[in-house]
Amino acid sequence: MDNNAKSPFSAIKVVECGEGIAAAFGAKMLADVGAEVIKVEAPGGDLARRRGPFPGDQADPEKSGIFIYLNTNKRGVVADLTRPEGRDLLGKLLADADVLIHNVPPSERAARGLDSATLCAAYPKLIVTSISIFGDTGPYANWHGYDLTVSNAGGWAYLSPGASPYPDKPPLKCFGSQGDFQGGVHAATVILAAYMHRLKTGKGHAIDVSEQECIAAMLEMNLMHWTYAHRETSRLGSRLLGPWFIADCADGKIFALAVEEEQWKRLVELMGNPEWASDELFKDRIARGQNQDALKALMGEWLSQWKVQDLYREAQKRRIPFAPINTMRDLYESEHLAAREFFVPLDQPGVGIVNLPGMPSKYGRTTWSLRRPAPRLGQHSEEVFCGEYGVGRDRLSELHKAGVA
Amino acid sequence: MLDFTWAWAGPFCTMQLAHLGAEVIRVETTARPACVTRLIPPFADDIPGPNRAGYFNQYNQGKRAITLNLTKPEAIEIACALVKQVDIVADNYAAGVMDKLGLGYDKLRSIKSDIIMASLSGYGQTGPYKGFVGYGPPASAAAGMFYGTGYEGGDPGEIGVSYPDPNAGIFGAFAIMAALTHRALTGEGQYIDQSQLETALVLMPEGLLQYELAKREPERQGNHDVVMAPHECYKAAGDDEKWVSIAVGTEDEWRALCGAIGQPQLAGDARFKTAAMRKKNETELDQIITAWTKTRDRWDATRILQAAGIAAFPSMGNKDLAEDPHLTERGYLVQLEHPEIGKRIHAGIPWKMSGTPCAVRKAAPLRGADTEEVLKSMLGLTLDRIEQLRKTEVLI
């Protein structure tokens, strides 16, 4: 099973106390390139186990799609960190770990033995990494939040869906759990920087990642519209440039975009040089943005005659950046993703083969692999605690009875 | 790091490395549209100018900038000479462009055997769509983000920002850090082929796996959650831009919410007794909560609910962010002196590291600000030679 022996990253030992997505995804980024990750779950299990999606929509904590995706390549143990015996078990793991990553909120850390300053003092070589909604400091540090909170606190929802004609409809969150994923990938990036630093100096770090700040840094020119030109942005209004809209084709929807003048010229050619295209209303990309409703109506009939994939190819052949509004099925059936072997089959016990989204970056040398299925709750408690950290089997059994492990 | 990136994804990537302390040398030229972000508003005080663009100045903080006209053979020679002295090269051109310029990975590796090269393209360097044009918004469409996003019962929606761009950037930064770690442990360099589409797809497991495991496409549900309710952005007092997000994930939070909005009896209401019931009856629930929020200032509502331990927060606009006391106190908002536009607020580093002085070190560079210094100090070029290269349009 374990073909990880060659990976230089197998030298990096990570302990993850993740609930849900953020810390688990950060640890997954490291695990997938070869780091040895031990995931510590509370006796009730990571809440990702309860969120699904599930095979055939039948809820089962050992079959959650999001849990499987986030926790392949990890070994799983159980310890109740709210109890001293559980914190002792964590202490054993941390004594020879390189990295700790968690997303326990600041207000709950002390009770779980996860206070950064205390851990850094106790384990001076450890890279202690916390991901939280608002960061570890500042007036909102102890405020509560979920991914919806991040998308609003970071300023993203305020801009979305963009050019909306519906002032009575609320700011809109993007699909999924993007704030949590960003917390994870940012944390993983900084952990490697801290690890490089430690290779040189032998010293650990406390890393504090704020999801609010991750999102606020990803909003293109949003902040500068205010700080440079005193203009407030909005989810309402019109597009700056056009064409820029979602349109119906014969068999699905396409995103029609042509933001450079050259792209527009080639698009007009592809449309067969209709007369209206030379109208004053559409004279440049800004006019086409302002008069987008008229443009959309005029382009509509032409667009509706195409099949999505045909138009996508013909447009791209002319370097016009159209893209289909892909469904999940479209993505699983994509010939391009198949050629790049993006989806990776994993045999998950009890579930069977699951084709998981695969590697975000293709490495020439570093081995990215899914080499181990996601752990059952507590699957490796005995192997890890007894086999590797000197906890007696009787003691583990006692802890198990007491509900700690 | 020698940075050939342009637009947004690439500069966002290399900025992360600059944030972490790398010496990033940004290569620009006026001979190609590589400086597009210098040409797009907002400009400082609405006065256009290549050094006044917020877009460029935000995403190139902490870097140096040289001009190098890559259409000239001498410029390629200079680039190759610089490669000999750097650890990392990054680009985000379409597949094949760096090869055509004479700066492909095989060439760079022949110059410096352990070079790390990261190419961030729209669709990757291989596969039938490898040459396709990738921008952030169509990448969101291609990755299924538009399909999954939208108001309940409505059409697929846009997602407000060109999210796959900075997302490709941060994944590129991770990949480069992984390659640097790999090199530190083994001595080997490597090439990284990154597809913007694929970096967006790894953020879509909830949708993709619902199809894979249950053969169902995700349903558009606005701000609602598959499990949690209430989970919505509610109208607050004031204009169309004033909203407050509220999410409840546990029974304790639900009871606290009922109390905080002055309706403790709701906690025992049969319609809302369990998480599943609240989800089922969330339309009624949303109406009850809206009746409470819509007469209240979004910050007042937030403070009342947070005091009760409930996840609530205003939907933040750009002015709100720029003036936010929390972001200010954390030192996130960065204002460094810029030679042409003075001090402006920029988004800074979204993490803190205790053991290193992790900070934005300088404002974004003026166009070509460091050409002379870099060519002198790294390549030993004389001022006369530099002047001559300027005249022959190699350094423009």
Concise account of the structure shown:
The complex is a heterodimer of chains A (405) and B (396). Chain A has 405 residues and is of the alpha/beta class. Chain A contains 17 helices and 12 strands.
Write the layout of secondary structure elements.
The complex is a heterodimer of chains A (405) and B (396).
Chain A lengths: L12 E5 L4 H11 L3 E6 L23 H7 L2 E5 L5 H12 L3 E4 L3 H4 L6 H7 L4 E6 L14 H7 L24 H24 L3 E6 H6 L5 H8 L14 E5 L4 E5 L3 H10 L14 H6 L1 H13 L3 H10 L5 E2 L3 H5 L2 H5 L4 E5 L3 E5 L5 E2 L17 H9 L3 H9 L4
Parallel strand pairs in A: 1-2, 1-4, 2-3, 4-5, 5-6
Antiparallel strand pairs in A: 7-8, 8-9, 10-11
Helix pairs in contact in A: 1-7
Chain B lengths: L1 E2 L5 H11 L5 E4 L25 H6 L4 E4 L5 H11 L4 E4 L5 H5 L3 H7 L4 E6 L14 H7 L2 H4 L15 H23 L3 E6 H6 L3 H10 L16 E5 L7 E5 L3 H10 L14 H6 L1 H12 L4 H10 L3 E4 L3 H5 L2 H5 L3 E2 L2 E2 L3 E2 L2 E2 L3 E3 L17 H9 L3 H9 L5
Parallel strand pairs in B: 1-2, 1-4, 2-3, 4-5, 5-6
Antiparallel strand pairs in B: 7-8, 8-9, 10-13, 11-12
Helix pairs in contact in B: 1-8
Q: What is the C-level CATH assignment of the largest domain in chain A?
A: Alpha Beta
Binned, the helix content of chain A reads 25-40%
**Total DSSP helices of chain A:** 17
Strand content range of chain B: 5-15%
Which secondary-structure class do the elements of chain B indicate?
Answer: alpha/beta
As for the number of domains of chain A, it is: 2
Number of separate structural domains of chain B: 2
Walk across the major sheet of chain A and give the strand order.
Answer: 3-2-1-4-5-6
C-alpha geometry of chain A: elongated
- What is the rounded distance between the termini of chain A? 26 Å
Average residue pLDDT of chain A: 96
CATH superfamily descriptor of the largest domain in chain B: Crotonobetainyl-coa:carnitine coa-transferase, domain 1
Give me the side-by-side strand order of the main sheet of chain B. Answer: 3-2-1-4-5-6
In CATH, the architecture of the largest domain in chain A is 3-Layer(aba) Sandwich
The gross shape of chain B turns out to be: elongated
CATH topology of the largest domain in chain B: Rossmann fold
Q: Helicity level of chain B, as a percent range?
A: 25-40%
**CATH architecture designation of the largest domain in chain B:** 3-Layer(aba) Sandwich
CATH class category name of the largest domain in chain B = Alpha Beta
